[in-house]
Structures are given as structure tokens and as C-alpha cells.
Amino acid sequence: MLAAISKNFFLAVSENKTLNKAARKWGLKFGASKVVAGETIESAIQAVKELNDKGIVATLDHLGEFVSSREEAIESTDYCVRTLEAIATSGVKSTLSVKMTQLGLDIDHDFCFDNMCRILDTATKHNLFVRIDMEDYSHCQITLDILRELRKTYDNVGTVIQAYLYRTEKDIEELKGVSLRLVKGAYKEPPEVAYQDKKDVDENYWKIIKAHLLSGSFTAIGSHDHNIIAKVKQFVKENNIPNDQFEFQMLYGFRTEMQQQLVKEGYNMRVYIPYGDDWFGYYMRRLAERPQNVAFALKGFFSK
Ligand SMILES: Cc1cc2nc3c(=O)[nH]c(=O)nc-3n(C[C@H](O)[C@H](O)[C@H](O)COP(=O)(O)OP(=O)(O)OC[C@H]3O[C@@H](n4cnc5c(N)ncnc54)[C@H](O)[C@@H]3O)c2cc1C
Fold first, then answer.
1. What average pLDDT does the segment 135-151 reach?
2. Pick from 162, 231, 222: nearest CA to 195
3. In the chain, what is the greatest distance between 2 CA atoms, to the nearest angstrom?
4. Any residues with CB less than 8 A from the CB of 90 and at least 6 apart, and which?
């Protein structure tokens, strides 16, 4: 009951524009610096280097919420291009993750598509991969439509599929051969479109992981759930799925010991590293997922 209240509270706060705007001026506060790798590209590249030294690769995400003008979308696109260039110049092992609402998805689909092409041209030049994060349900279909269109020209792009959506099993079937990150899903979705019960989400998650792995497609398992991770390890062994057909992914600052352990066991481990001054919404969504993380926030609050 308490967990449900705190989940709804943090999800609601994550969407509060005034707080998000104000937080940009505060700097990383309330423990956010444990899960956000600083506000600049330089600090993000440094975080990648530190992980690379431990045998972990990365994917960088420049944080941004509520992009509503073309100027803001172009600025976000520029950030993505600069991030790819910084990855290439520094020689770190990292891909890029992007949210298309930052690139103008809510303004004009063609404009967003053109911004994606700019990013993918830069990625192609440097032989880098770009993953489109999946946002809330209202953006799901258009994200997949744009992905299909992009894949006519680029093969270095993939997306994310969320296990809590009813539509997911069908999407997985249609996305055979595409590099996918599979996750449980982070947004608050209504019962009309998504499973509400954790048990149903977990069951569907396991179902889609097996389906994508068995189709021979590259599968990133984006989860901190030790039960799922243990099942994946067993499943790939039993089905002779090679290590280069899948990887585990976790968020920066979460379950760092387990990240190291997986590397020691010989698995590919990628950490999703968010950076930038627009950290508030991302941080609140992480607090919503795991009430225990609130301890992080409170510690940070009192130590500042
Ligand atoms: C790399 C990555 C990228 C993502 N990208 C997207 C995206 O594009 N779109 C989207 O909607 N969502 C995304 N997510 C978020 C995802 O959808 C989930 O909301 C989030 O990962 C929480 O689910 P979980 O599978 O990690 O485990 P949960 O269901 O939250 O936890 C399962 C169990 O694992 C254990 N556990 C979990 N976290 C911890 C911890 N920190 N410490 C100790 N034990 C823990 C607990 O026992 C818990 O009961 C992403 C997640 C990751 C890791």
C-alpha cells in the first residue's frame, strides 16, 4: 500500500514541469549524483572510462524532458551529435541512447525523423550504435514506425520493448532480427493497455526474452532483477546461445557489485549512463521504481 502511494507520488512529481525546470538550476541534488554522471559531456565520458576499466561498456543518455520547441529539439540533437563525437574522440566503449520526444517527436514527426538521421549519420561515420529508448504508451506506435523507416537506411539503430504492454508479444514477433533492449517498463500505464500486476509483467518479460533470444536476434536484458538474470544465464546455456548474441544492461549506480560479478563470469555488461542538468524526472522515475532508493535521496537531502 505504502509502496504504491510512493510509486504514484514519485511518478506524478517526475512529470511536474515547474519542479523539473527549477531542478536544472539546483545542480545534482538529493543523492542524484549517485545515479547521474554529472552535468557535462566530459563528466559522462569520465564515468564511461571508469566503467570500461572494469570491463563494462556503456550507453550514454543526455537527459532532457518536455521539449516543446524546434529550437530545443535542435539543441538536444546537437547534444547527441556532440556526445557521439566525444565517444569517438576519446575512444571509450559506449553507444548512445536517445528519447525521440527530445528530438521533436511531439512537434512534427518528419522533423524528428530528420533529427534522428543527423544523429545516425554521425554514428555511422564513427561506427557507433544508437538505441531509441521507449517512452510512454502514447509514443509507442510512432516510435516503432520511425524505427522501421530508419532501418531502411541504417542498420546501427535499435529500440526498447516494454514487457508491461499487452501489445508487446506481437511487436517482438514483428521485430525479429532487430537489436532490442527488453525491459519491464517504467511509466504509469492504464489497465486498458498494460498489465498492472507485477507477476503478469514478470511472466510476460520472461516470455519475450525467450522469444527474442530464440529468434537469433541480439537481445539486451535491461533489468536489475536477479531472478530474471539467473534464468537468462540458465536459458542461454541450455540453448547454446552465444555470448555475443546478448548482453545484460543496468542503470548507472544500481547493483554495481552484480555488474562486476557478471563481468567476472564472462558476460557482456553495459551500463546506461544518464548525464546533463535535466536530471529531475529521470531521478524521480528511479525513486518510483524502488522505494528503497528513497534512502539514497534522503541521505543526499540531509548531506547537502
Ligand atoms: C539499462 C536500462 C534501460 C532502460 N530503458 C528503459 C526504457 O527505454 N523505457 C522504459 O520504459 N523503461 C526502461 N528501463 C526501466 C525498466 O523498464 C524498469 O522500470 C526498471 O529496470 C525496473 O525493473 P527491473 O527489471 O530492474 O526490476 P524490478 O522489477 O524493479 O525489481 C525486481 C527485483 O530485483 C531486485 N532489485 C531491483 N533493483 C534493485 C537494486 N537497485 N538493488 C537491489 N535489488 C534490486 C529486487 O529484489 C526487486 O524486487 C530501463 C532499465 C534499464 C536497466
1. 97
2. 162
3. 51
4. 45, 48, 49
The type of residue at 153 is T
Cβ atoms of residues 213 and 221 within 8 Å: no
| 25 Cα–ligand 1 center, Å | 28
Q: In the chain, what are the domain boundaries?
A: 37-278
Is 37-278 a CATH 1.25.40.10 domain? no
- pLDDT by residue (tens digit) across 154-198? 999 999 999 999 999 999 999 999 999 999 998 889 999 999 999
SS3 194: strand
Ligand 1 atom with least separation from CA of 293: 41
Atom of ligand 1 nearest to the CA of 99: 8
- Indicate the Cα dihedral angle 19, 21, 22, 24, nearest 10°: 120
Confidence of residue 293 (pLDDT cuts 50, 70, 90): low
What lines the ligand 1 site, CB under 6 Å? 133-134, 160, 162, 181, 183-187, 222-226, 249-251, 254-255, 272, 289-290
Ligand 1 centre and the CA of 89: distance in Å?
31
CA distance 219 to 212: 7
262 — pLDDT class (breaks 50, 70, 90): very high
Name the residues annotated as catalytic.
133, 181
Structure confidence at residue 302 as a pLDDT band (50, 70, 90): very low
> From CA 35, how far away is CA 269, in angstroms rounded?
17
CA separation for the pair 281, 285 (Å, rounded): 6
What are the start-end ranges of the H helices in the chain? 2-14, 17-26, 41-53, 70-90, 109-125, 140-150, 168-174, 198-214, 226-238, 256-264, 280-289, 294-303
Distance of CA 145 to the CA centre of its chain: 19
pLDDT band of residue 303 (cuts 50, 70, 90) is: very low
Ligand 1, atom 39, residue with closest C-alpha: 224
